[in-house]
Design goal:
Length: 188
C-alpha cells in the first residue's frame, strides 16, 4: 500500500470553497468535517509517530482547534503531554499573546503553560501561508522554549518553504497538495 493511502484517497474529491481570494479544500484532516474515519486518523498518527522526534521532546504543542484531534492520540502513543495554544485570553500568569495572520484571517493566540527550556514538538493540521506557524514559532522562541520538531499533516502553498528559510527550521509534512478553484492535486 502507498504511504498514507487512506488520507490521499479521502482528499481526492473533497469540496473546495472560496474564502476571499483563497481556495480552501474541506476535509476532516484539516477542518474536522465531514467526519474523520478511524482508519484515516490511525494512518496519520502512525506516520506522525514514525517521523517525529518524540524521544527528544517534553511537550507536544498545537493551536486549537483541529490540531487537538492529533495531539490527544499522540500523547497516548508517545507518553508526552500536550498543550493547546488557545484563541481566547485566560489571563493566567505568564500568558503570552501572539498575533496570527493567515491567508484569510487575523486573530490573537494565547500561550499558557510553556516554560523556558521546554523542548516542544509543534503539530498542526495544515500549513499554507505559514501565518499561524510563524506566530507560534516566534512566541515559543520568545518564551525560551526549544522547538525540536514541526509536524504538519497537509501542506499547500509556499508557506512551508518560506518559513523554513525565514525561521531556520525544518518543517515535516505528510502530504503536499495544490488547490485551485476546480481541483485539488497532490504535489508529492
Amino acid at each position: 500500500m502507498k504511504r498514507l493511502e487512506r488520507l490521499r484517497q479521502t482528499l481526492v474529491g473533497s469540496p473546495i470553497v472560496k474564502r476571499g481570494e483563497y481556495n480552501y479544500v474541506v476535509h476532516p484532516a484539516t477542518d474536522g468535517i465531514p467526519r474523520m474515519e478511524q482508519d484515516v486518523l490511525t494512518e496519520i498518527i502512525d506516520e506522525l509517530v514514525r517521523i517525529g522526534k518524540f524521544d527528544q521532546c517534553d511537550v507536544i504543542v498545537t493551536v486549537e482547534a483541529i490540531g487537538i484531534q492529533y495531539v490527544a492520540p499522540l500523547t497516548l502513543r508517545t507518553g508526552k503531554p500536550f498543550n493547546i495554544v488557545r484563541k481566547r485570553r485566560y489571563g493566567l500568569p505568564g500568558e503570552i499573546n501572539l498575533k496570527q495572520t493567515t491567508g484569510y484571517s487575523k486573530s490573537d493566540l494565547y500561550v499558557n503553560g510553556i516554560s523556558i527550556g521546554d523542548r516542544v514538538i509543534i503539530v498542526d493540521d495544515v500549513i499554507s501561508t505559514g501565518g499561524t506557524l510563524r506566530a507560534l514559532i516566534q512566541g515559543l522562541r520568545q518564551i525560551g522554549a526549544e522547538i525540536v520538531d514541526v509536524l504538519i499533516v497537509v501542506e499547500k502553498g509556499d508557506g512551508k518553504e518560506c518559513l523554513e528559510k525565514e525561521m531556520g527550521i525544518e518543517i515535516k509534512t505528510l502530504v503536499k497538495i495544490e488547490v485551485t478553484e476546480r481541483e485539488m492535486k497532490f504535489l508529492d
